[in-house]
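Please fill in the sequence for the structure shown.

STRUCTURE ENCODING:
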């Protein structure tokens, strides 16, 4: 059940300071409404690592989220809404309406964060039904063709690469402030804080006049770590006794809240608010709002709405998140709760029904439509069993960090049973008292698991020699046997010693130039290695390299088809690892 609204105990001086900071650049001209479009516009906002308890509307007496609280009061609240316990899986399920593992995604790195391009995405559904489509912020389902957002139904994209700003595939030295992001295939510099940029770009998209309705996916990287935000958002929390890391985390959320308020004001000022479906949700449980870090002082000890676990956990706090939906013109309003079990896979069928859209894809959906429940014109889907798990390894393992969910029960890791209605904190394992329930839920899991197994040995592949040429690869997407990979720029700086192949698809046979780099190519920085080698599609080549060389270039003739690319760099001390960066360019027949 949704916790009741509470008076925020944030210090009055801090609230006033944040109100000043939160003044929107655009005035609200609600009275200047334009005629409503018949099909509704859709804005889907998803934040990163913000949990169920990281919003004032759910009972957090410390965090300042007045705009989200106001929206929650006006919206329909899905109070038992679930996602996967980590980033990429939640995003693939949201985009496809299918369990993440079916789409090839069960990790956030190691090539297992790449979504099968054969999935019909939300954006492709909207696009096929006459909508303009745009995405701003975090994608995290593949940085290369045919996996990029612009390959998957989004006409206009402004985004960072990898799983977060500053990660390995992202533009080098991005740090949340005055960064460089990709805009429709080209890197472009921006001024300002990352979250501000995403919302500013989204607002500019709203202001483009068109007779076509739009689908806008605004996916912030905040409040994902590193916890970077202007000090003005952090200081009020520190003064209120919030430990430093959590204060920065909360500050990032307050900045999101401020931007969300401004976006809604602009939407109203443009006359679009009444006929726009707005969805606010998050991608997994809290990362830093549950308990302070070690050796961090502060009187506030965090808030997780009484749930057990946080990001990455199979317990409720790892995958139950906020989901607020509003559409004034379509009857989705009034501050109601829908308490039925729901999940990320339900958004695609729900939005398709609300917007009167047809799917062209033939792959069966795992989600169900909540259109009637949101409009209060019929009951929600009932009698459901849903599944989540957190794998984060090369090949999924049965029962690993799993939860089987019904309206009443949670079967955790195949052996622990909790009555979630009587025991929302999951403190009392009732498996020994209800063996028939355990048996039934285990059997349903077995059926679900067998349906996933065909994907385990398959690879979602990066295309070379196709629409993106050359292709810039990064070690974030290497496949390894659970050794980890250099997925962050700091791993590259520190010379992470590991190797693994990229799974690729050679789309056209012919001559290819493969260039290996120790550092991003634009840095033109010495690799400080003495040897380089490549192996791909049954072909291999090697060479000695000067320590001053910035790259190693190979020319090979490749046949078309699926394969793997393995690279090797050897340092003067004979330590070997893969080339963290590589470029693959088709150069002709």
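FILLED IN BY: designer on duty
SEQUENCE:
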């Amino acid at each position: 059940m949704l916790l009741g609204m509470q008076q925020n105990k944030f210090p009055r001086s801090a609230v006033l300071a944040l109100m000043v900071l939160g003044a929107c650049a655009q005035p609200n001209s609600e009275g200047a409404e334009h005629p409503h479009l018949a099909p509704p516009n859709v804005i889907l906002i998803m934040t990163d690592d913000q949990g169920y308890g990281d919003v004032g509307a759910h009972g957090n007496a410390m965090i300042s989220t007045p705009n989200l609280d106001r929206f929650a009061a006006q919206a329909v609240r899905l109070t038992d809404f679930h996602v996967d316990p980590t980033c990429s899986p939640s995003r693939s399920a949201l985009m496809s309406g299918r369990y993440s593992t079916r789409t090839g995604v069960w990790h956030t790195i190691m090539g297992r964060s790449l979504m099968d391009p054969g999935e019909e995405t939300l954006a492709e559904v909207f696009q096929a039904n006459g909508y303009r489509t745009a995405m701003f912020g975090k994608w995290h389902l593949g940085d290369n063709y045919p996996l990029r957002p612009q390959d998957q139904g989004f006409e206009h994209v402004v985004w960072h690469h990898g799983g977060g700003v500053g990660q390995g595939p992202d533009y080098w030295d991005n740090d949340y402030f005055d960064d460089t992001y990709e805009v429709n295939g080209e890197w472009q510099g921006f001024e300002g804080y990352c979250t501000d940029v995403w919302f500013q770009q989204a607002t500019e998209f709203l202001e483009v006049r068109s007779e076509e309705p739009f689908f806008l996916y605004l996916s912030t990287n905040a409040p994902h770590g590193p916890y970077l935000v202007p000090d003005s958002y952090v200081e009020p929390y520190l003064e209120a006794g919030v430990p430093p890391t959590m204060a920065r985390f909360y500050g990032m959320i307050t900045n999101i809240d401020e931007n969300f308020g401004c976006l809604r004001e602009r939407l109203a000022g443009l006359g679009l608010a009444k006929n726009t479906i707005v969805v606010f949700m998050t991608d997994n449980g809290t990362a830093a709002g549950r308990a302070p870090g070690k050796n961090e002082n502060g009187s506030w000890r965090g808030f997780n709405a009484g749930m057990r676990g946080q990001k990455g956990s199979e317990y409720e706090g790892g995958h139950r998140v906020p989901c607020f939906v509003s559409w004034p013109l379509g009857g989705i309003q009034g501050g109601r709760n829908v308490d039925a079990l729901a999940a990320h896979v339900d958004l695609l069928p729900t939005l398709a029904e609300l917007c009167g859209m047809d799917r062209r894809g033939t792959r069966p959906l795992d989600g169900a439509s909540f259109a009637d429940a949101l409009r209060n014109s019929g009951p929600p889907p009932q009698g459901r069993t849903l599944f989540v798990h957190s794998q984060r390894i090369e090949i999924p393992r049965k029962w690993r960090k799993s939860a089987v969910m019904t309206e009443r029960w949670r079967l955790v890791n195949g052996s622990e049973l909790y009555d979630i209605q009587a025991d929302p904190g999951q403190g009392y394992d009732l498996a020994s008292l209800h063996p028939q329930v355990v048996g039934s839920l285990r059997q349903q899991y077995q059926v679900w698991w067998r349906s996933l197994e065909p994907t385990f040995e398959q690879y979602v592949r990066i295309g070379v020699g196709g629409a993106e040429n050359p292709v810039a690869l990064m070690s974030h997407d290497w496949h390894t046997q659970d050794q980890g990979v250099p997925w962050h720029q700091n791993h590259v700086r520190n010379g992470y010693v590991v190797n693994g192949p990229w799974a690729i698809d050679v789309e056209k046979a012919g001559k290819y130039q493969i260039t290996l780099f120790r550092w991003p190519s634009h840095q033109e920085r010495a690799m400080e290695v003495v040897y380089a080698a490549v192996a791909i599609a049954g072909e291999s080549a090697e060479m000695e390299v000067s320590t001053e060389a910035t790259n190693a270039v190979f020319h090979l003739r490749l046949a078309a088809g699926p394969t793997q690319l393995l690279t090797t760099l050897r340092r003067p001390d004979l330590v070997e690892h893969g080339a963290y960066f590589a470029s693959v360019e088709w150069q002709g027949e």
